[in-house]
Amino acid sequence: MSVFVDTDTRIVVQGATGKEGSFWTNHMIEMGASVVAGVTPGKEGQRVHGVPVYHTVARALERHRADAAMLFVPPRFTKEAVFEALDGGIKTIVTIADGIPLHDQVEIRAAARGKGARVVGGNTSGVISPGRSMMGIFPYWIERVYKPGRIGVMTRSGSLTNEVTSMVVRAGFGVSSLIGVGGDPVPGTRFAEMLPDYEADPGTDAVVVIGELGGTMEEECAQAITSGVYTKPLVAFIGGRTAPKGKRMGHAGAIVTGGTGSVEEKVRALEAAGASVADRPSQVGTLLAAALEEHRRG
Amino acid sequence: MKLFEYQAKRVFTEAGITVPRSTLVETSGPARAAVTAAVADAVTAYNDAAVIKAQVLMGGRGKRGLVRKATAADAAETTEAILDADVPVPSLLVEELVAAERELYLAITIDAPGSKALVLASAEGGIDIEELAATRPEAIVRFPVDLRRGLLGYEARSIAYQMGLEGRDAKGVASVLISLWRVFRERDAELVEINPLFVTADGVVAGDGKVSIDDNSLFRQPGYAPTRDHFESDAEFEAAREGIPYLQFDGDISLMCAGAGLTTTVFDLVHYEGGTVANYLEFGGPNYRRAKRAMELCLRNESAVILIVTFGTIARADVMAEGVVEAIRELKPDRPIVTCIRGTNEEGAVETLKAAGIEPLFDTEEAVRRAVAIAAERGGAAGLSGGAS
């Protein structure tokens, strides 16, 4: 079992013929993903690593059944590409685009919610269930990060994911499903919206949340714990404790404004809900082991 | 990208929102005497009752003495006082004084969880809205708006009535709200704000203006590009023009890291270990082949050490290590460099660094401790030549 994407998830790749799209489509297939079709306007009839390419999503769906769409589409065209997938009835979409206009981000999330669909991204590496399937751009061959196992990981940052997940693996654990919700101010899917999936997944024993300053996604996780939506152990690491107010720390979403988004608030909310929060990435493994032990004892 | 008040008010005027009559006086080019003379002329033109406002992007201008009332008699003196403030003031906006019956607050921003825009409105304008939100949230009307549907006329009127307005005032505020919505959408704004919005006998007038354009949308906002005046330092401006995320601080350790989240975490770890940061620089993502440019920017600081930490995916470790070695060869840095370069093809990175006589570290926290120790050993910025310029 895994969350979001599994070996039997049939994937359409939009933007499959570009350099990046083609390179990572190949890796998705090698890792075990079922890529059934590619879409690039004007390129119908071509094949990418054996996958047939169509002009439009609709034309691909005439010939293939698909459950998910992976987008390798530049940020300024991402909104249209997401709408095209949604109009085709696809409910699971991942976009890695970095630089999607803010109002487009809002429209993408609103449209997905309106159709009961889930868009992950942008500004992310995507979703991976190591050893099973992936939608995105992960160096799954780095074994000290992408080792299969029973810990779910949710993250706002690619580079920090490698850092923190390597600590999870060093402590003897592995990863069930890793979801990069992305570093944008309006991610298509928010942390807390994935927690019910991890709760239901028999392959996940606990979840590590890699957060950062800005927004309220970490506080929403605390709420999910308090309300009982999520009952497994949760360990968080949150970057930006010492970031000065009003400075944007790299990601567009990583900024303290209007009285919200400070790391202290997030830590307070999570700890009050019973989650563990690591001060440093190196503490995540130990906290995870302790939380699992406590959970086992009940 | 934040617009200066005078730019925001131009946008408002185009959208049909009334703003006070005003004159913009540039301060960086002309001599001080010419500036004060131009300000005095403008004050006189506004019937000897005006307000002089420094065009800077920081909040709290009033408290900092960057917004002052003036008459023709004291215009020169007041101008001097503003220009002598501790911050660079690229221009002054001289505005006629508005006789306000009351002051209101209007803003539109984004509600990320709700995936909507959010109108914020209050009958108590001219205040610190964050403070009001914290102390008396009931004084703020919150109205979510679907982006595709837009803000409708009856909704704008309903917001005005909820603010406790009636008659002429309600009608005027509703009309401003519709115009403000157009600005928000057409300018791809992350925030538009009027605080205060003056209610006068002749209608409503925007006393101040904030428009912040989403950086990701600048490609479709012709006419708006960040200038030197949008940044606090030359290095921040140059880095931004080249698409390299960079923040200036005045500590000892130059961060040259890859990935926003990792760089922010290294920033924290440096502080936990008792160190200080000279600059935040991120050369991951599309910039991972630009080690030399990144190092050049770091070397501009009077930092004691450069700390390189990466754990890249597409940003290949071997390519970054080669870039770093080449940058060291060409730039001959005058300070130690600590490297912790990991991720895709890290074996190649290790070989490259070792061949160049650089010790490759693998643990982020160890690398941070090493850099903090070096900075302490070298006496910190105090022992060098006086911190960053």
Largest interface by residue count?
Answer: A-B, 56 and 53 residues
Radius of gyration of chain A over alpha carbons?
Answer: 19 Å
Order of helices and strands of chain B: HEHEEHEEEHEHHEEEHEEHEHEHEHHH
What strand line-up does the widest sheet of chain A have?
3-4-2-1-5-6-7
CATH fold topology of the largest domain in chain B: Rossmann fold
By CATH, the superfamily of the largest domain in chain A comes out as: Succinyl-CoA synthetase domains
Rg from Cα of chain B: 25 Å
CATH class of the largest domain in chain A: Alpha Beta
Q: What fraction, in percent, of the residue positions of chain B are helical?
A: 25-40%
Shape of chain B: elongated
CATH-assigned fold name of the largest domain in chain A: Rossmann fold
CATH class of the largest domain in chain B: Alpha Beta
Q: What is the strand tally of chain A? A: 14
CATH architecture of the largest domain in chain A: 3-Layer(aba) Sandwich
Strand content of chain A: 15-25%
Task: Give the helix tally of chain B.
Answer: 13
Q: Which assembly state applies to the chains in this document?
A: heterodimer
Structural class of chain B: alpha+beta
- As for the number of domains of chain A, it is 2
How would you sum up the major sheet of chain B?
Answer: 6 strands, antiparallel
Q: Return the domain count of chain B.
A: 3
Could you list some keywords that capture this structure?
heterodimer, A: 298 residues, alpha/beta, Rossmann fold, 2 domains, 7-stranded mixed sheet, 14 strands, 22% strand, globular, B: 389 residues, alpha+beta, Dna Ligase, domain 1, D-amino Acid Aminotransferase, Chain A, domain 1, 3 domains, 6-stranded antiparallel sheet, 5-stranded mixed sheet, 13 helices, disordered C terminus
